Amino acid sequence: MKKILLALFALSQFVVAQNKSKSDTTNVHELQDVFITANRTATLRKETPVAISKLTAKTINETKANAAYEIVNKTPGVLMVNLGNEQHSMAIRQPMTTNAYYLYLEDGLPIRPMGIFNHNALLEINQFNLQSIEVVKGPVSSLYGPEAVGGTINFISLKPSINPEFKFGIQGDHFGFRRIQAAGGATIGKIGFHIAGISSLQENGWMANSDYNKDNLNARIDYNISAATRLISNTMYGKYYSQMSGSVNEADFNNRTYNSTSDFTYRKSDALRTRLTLEHDWNENASSYITAYFRDNKLGQNPSYGIRWNPAVNPTTATGEVNSNNFKSYGTIGQHTHKFDFLNTKIVAGALYDYSPVNYWAYRTNLRAVLNPGTTGSQTVHHYEVIEERPDLKIADYTADIYNTAGYAQLSFNPIEKVVVSLGGRYDNMKIKYSNALDLSSGDKIYDKATFKAGVNYNPFDFSGFYGNYSQGFAPPGITSIFRAKSGTGGTTGVPAEFYYNLKPASFENYEIGGWFSLLRNKLNFDYAFYYMEGKNELLNVKLEDNSTDYRSAGETRHKGIEFGINYKPSTQIHFRLGGTYAQHTFIDFKVSDKPTDVLQNLDGKEMPAAPRWSGNSEIYYYPNWLPKLRTSIEWQHVGSYYQDQINTVKYDGYNLFNARIGYQWKNFEFYGNVMNLTDKLYAYNVSRANASNAQAAFTAAAPRTFVLGIQYNFSLKNK
C-alpha cells in the first residue's frame, strides 16, 4: 500500500506536466444550504422537512482525524462511540447500540446490503477521500429502506478536480499510531480521475493487545461523454486487521491498568466495492441515472465480546468463539427526477434490485480463566488462555441468498407561496433463501414493508423556516441474529440447537417539528428539532450472566428528545459552534421472560441502558488576523450519565472531554497538532453490565491524553 501511495505522487507530476498550459477558469463554492441525502437529489435546506446536518470539507480537513468518530461527533444529535481502532457503535435517536438501526451510505449507496448490518462498517471509510458528510436524523425508510431508522450517514467522496491537485501527508501520535496518506486528481479532456489512499499502523499502544493496521485505496474516473451524459466509475478496496483488547473491570479501569484480558482476539476485514453509474440530463427539468454495483466482503473474528464466563458455574473456565461472515452483492439501482412548472412540482422515483449470497460459520473455543485475587462472589478475570479450538462445536453454520427489491417515489410541490409539501413512499421486499447446517433445515423467510413519510416546510422569511414531518422506519432482524444458536442449546449442552426464527421486523413511527433561523447577516445560525418516536418489535439484546446475548423483538419502546445546533461567527477571527441533544429512551412494554421462576419478568417503564439524556459537542475556533495562516480550536465533548444495566440499578457518570487543535499553513506545507483528551481525563467510551445483582461492569476504556502531530503537502495548479 505504501508503494501505491508514493506512486500517486509520481502520477500527479505527470498530470501536472500535461496540464501546465491550462488556465484556471473554475471557482469552487461550498453550497452549504444544499443537501443530497434527504431527498436523493440536490435540495435546498428550506425545502427539506427533516433534521439534517452537513460536515463540510473545511471541517473535515481541519479536524485531521485519526478515526471517523472524531469528525462525525461534531454533528448535533449524534454520538458515534469509539470502541478502539476505528471500531464503533452509534447513538442517533437511539441509545448507544450496535443494532441495525443506522444506514451508512457511500455516495448515496449503502455500504452493506440490507440484512447484513455491521456496526463497524465505517472502519472501511477512507478519511482522506471525503468531500463532505451528510447526516439525516430520524427515519428515512421511505427513501432508503430498511435500517434507515435512527439515522442515515452519507459519506460523499471527492470528485476529480478540473486542475491538477495533489496532497500527501503523514501523521501519528506518541502511543505508536502512524498513518501515511495521499490523494490526487485532475481532468484531461473528457476524462477526470481522483485517487486517494491511506495506510494506518498502530503498534504498542497505551492499551495492551491493541495493535492494528488498515490500508484503503479509492479510485474514481469520470468520463464526460457529452455535456448531458456522464459515465462514473467508483472503486474502493480495503484491508483491515486489529487485535481486540476488549473491556476491563472496574478496579483496573480506576487504576488505569490497561491490561487486556485476551491476547488472542482479533477482527480482520477484506472489502471491495465497485460501481458504474450512467447519468443523463434529458433537459433542464429532467435527469436520470442507473448504477450497477458489486460488493465482496470477508470478515473474520475471534471476538472479545464472544467470551462467555459464568463464575457461578465454574470461575476458572470460559468459552469463546471464532467466526467468519462473507458475502458478495450484485445489484442495480435506477432513478429519475422530473420538475414541472405546475406548483413547482418535483418527482423523484426509483427502483433497486440486490442479490447477496452470504455464508457464515462460528465455532466454540475453550478457555482458561485466570482470576485476580478477590473474595468469593466478586471474582474478576486477569486474563484468558486458549485451551483448545473446537471447530466441531458449531455455534452457527449457514448459507443464505438474500434478494432485496424495492421501489420508491417522492413528490414535493408548493401549494401556496413559501410552503413546500413533501410526500414519499417505498415498498421493500427482502427474501432470504437459507440452509442451516446445524438443524438441517432450509427454507425461505420474507420481510416486506411499505413505509411512508409526509412533511411540510414553511419559510415565512428569508432568514427563518419551520418544518414538520411524519415518517416511518423499518428494520428486519439481521440474519446473523436469526441463525445463531440460542444460549444453552446445541454443542455439548445436550439440548438440541434452537434458533431465532421467530424474530419480528421492527417498525417505527416518528413525529417531528423543527426549524432554523439566520440572524446578524448570517453570522448567527440556529437549528432545532423536537421528535417523538415509537418503536414496536424493536430488536434488543438481553445480556445474560455468562456475557452471552439473548435476542428479543417484542413489545414497545419510546424515544423522544430535542436536538439543536448553534453557529456564531462574530468576526473573521472567531467561530463558535454549540450542538447537542436531550433525549429519553424508555421501555414501554417489553417482556424479558415467560418463566414464572424468573425474578425479572419485564422492563416496562425503565430507561434503556447506555442512553445518556444529555450529549453534545461544541467548539470554538480562532483564526488570528495577525497570523492569517494559523488556526486553533478547543473542542468540548459531553456525555451525560446513563444506566449500565437494563434494570436501572447502576449508573455511569458520563464525562466531559476537551480536545485542542492547531495548524499552520506555510507555502504548500501544512503543519498541525492535536491534543486529544487535553486534561488527561479518566473516562470510558462505554460501560455495561448484565442484570444479575452480582454482575461486574465492563469498561471500554478511553485513551489518556494523546498528542497527534502531522505534516501535509498540498499542491494545486490553479494556485500557480
Automatic annotation (TrEMBL):
Domain TonB-dependent receptor plug residue range list: 46-152
Check the UniProt entry and state the signal peptide residues, or none. Answer: 1-17
> Main location per UniProt?
membrane
Subcellular location, in the record's words? Cell outer membrane
Q: Which Pfam families match?
A: Plug, TonB_dep_Rec_b-barrel
Q: Where is the TonB-dependent receptor-like beta-barrel domain?
A: 212-678
Q: Which PROSITE patterns match?
A: TONB_DEPENDENT_REC_3 (PS52016)
Superkingdom in the source lineage: Bacteria
Q: Which SUPFAM superfamilies match?
A: Porins
Record's keyword annotation contains Cytoplasm? no
Which positions are tagged coiled coil?
none
Which keywords does UniProt give here? Cell outer membrane, Ion transport, Iron, Iron transport, Membrane, Receptor, Signal, TonB box, Transmembrane, Transmembrane beta strand, Transport
Entries under Gene3D superfamilies matching the protein: TonB-dependent receptor, beta-barrel domain (2.40.170.20), TonB-dependent receptor, plug domain (2.170.130.10)
- Claim: Transmembrane is one of the keywords in the record: yes
Membrane topology according to the record: Multi-pass membrane protein
Please report which protein family the annotation says this sequence is part of. Answer: Belongs to the TonB-dependent receptor family.
Q: What is this protein called?
A: TonB-dependent receptor
**Which species is the source of this protein?**
Flavobacterium zubiriense
Q: What is the lineage of its organism?
A: Bacteria, Pseudomonadati, Bacteroidota, Flavobacteriia, Flavobacteriales
